[in-house]
Amino acid sequence: MSSTEQSVLDAFYMARALELARKGVYSTHPNPRVGCVIVRDGEVVGEGWHVRAGEPHAEVHALRQAGEKARGATAYVTLEPCSHHGRTPPCADALVNAGVGRVVAAMQDPNPDVAGRGLLRLMSAGIAVQSGVLESEARAINKGFLKRMEHGLPYVRVKLAMSLDGRTAMASGESKWITGPEARSAVQRLRAQSSVVLTGADTILADDARLTVRPDELGLNAELTALAVTRPPLRVLVDGRLRVSLDAPFFKADNALVATCAAASARERYQEQGHELLALPSSGGHVDLRKLLVELAARGVNDVLVEAGPRLAGAFTRMGLVDEFQIFVAGKFMGSSARPLLDLPLAQMSEALELKIVEMRAVGSDWRVIAIPTPNPSV
Question: Are 321 and 152 in contact (CB under 8 A)?
Answer without folding.
Answer: no
